[in-house]
Amino acid sequence: MKFLSYDLGHLKEGEIVEVTLTGNAANVKLMNSSDFSNYKAGRKHTYYGGHVASSPYRIAVPSSGFWHVTVDLGGYSGRLGSSVKVL
Q: Fewer Cβ atoms within 10 A, N terminus or C terminus of the chain?
């Protein structure tokens, strides 16, 4: 599966991540490093977020640690573009 990924580095609990989508609605997933590795390998993973139809989308970091964001179309066709920033 094709996806865009962003390494956010170390974030503190409560920081806000803002994802801006261009093109189609997409799946936005905020994951810790372990779950991101599982995601890339096609294994079961836990994430925060989900299907996002309007942007910008904001999500709070649930705990301090190293975090990643992925954006994908869930196997559907379409145009995928995004940007991510920590507020």
A: C
